[in-house]
Structures are given as structure tokens and as C-alpha cells.
Amino acid sequence: QVQLVESGGGQVQPGGSLRLSCVSSVSTFSFKAMGWYRQAPGKQRELVAKMVVNGLTEYSDSAKGRFTISKDNAKNTLFLQLDSLRPDDTAVYYCAGGLGATLVWGQGTQVTVSS
After folding, report:
1. Mean pLDDT of the chain
2. What is the pLDDT of residue 86?
3. CA distance linking residue 115 with residue 106, whole number of Å
């Protein structure tokens, strides 16, 4: 069974930074695409950033210029660097990977931005 395990969340002040990690139990080369989603209380889950197999990246309007997605295939790990964090970035952040016809999800990591 393929597993994705996120870490790196926490509480940070506005303007601060966090680096989220997502470790895969299988090679990250196995996924057609990998990405980060988030879900704030009372809101739908939304795509934050994704990376397809050829390395191309895509960001939500909210993430552009502040967040950076990257991958270390040797460590089977996907990252999301969060900079210039704002209170409205508070959410549970999920890692996901497209494996065949299946979208595999991690369990999520909480990011809280408050002063």
C-alpha cells in the first residue's frame, strides 16, 4: 500500500516561513504528478501547487511568489516551502500523488499563522 506522510507543519507568526515535507513509501518517479492541497475550516480543499513528471510546476494565485514546490527523487520526498505566510494560509496541508487512476493522499499537517 502506497503511503504519503507529511511533516513540517506548525504555528508561525505572519510573515514567517515553514517547510513542509512529504515522504513517499514508493519512488516519486512512480507518480504522474504530485502536489500540495490545503483545507481551511469550513472551506473546500484547494490545490496549492503541483509538479508534473517533467518538472513543470503550477501554483494557485494565492501561492504564486510566496510558496515553492520541489522534489528530491533520491529521498522520495516532495517539499513545499511556505514564505511570507498570512493568517489566511491557516489550513491543513495535504500531499497527494497521482498513481495510475488513483490519487493517493497523505494524512495532512496543520499550518497555523497567527500572532
Report:
1. 96
2. 98
3. 28
- Cα 65 off chain centre by: 15
Candidates 53, 69, 75, 55; CA nearest to 5 is 75
**Nearest alpha-carbon partner for 18 in 83, 79, 89, 63:** 83
Specify the 3-state DSSP secondary structure of 51: strand
pLDDT digits (tens, 9 = 90+) for 4-49: 999 999 999 999 999 999 999 999 989 999 999 999 999 999 999 9
Q: Which cell numbers hold the place of 92?
A: 491543513
Pairing of strands 91-99, 77-82: unpaired
Tell me the one-letter amino acid at 32: K
What number of other Cβ atoms are within 10 A of residue 54's Cβ? 6
**Rounded (to 5) percent helix, strand, coil in the chain:** 10, 55, 40
d(CA 9, CA 20): 6
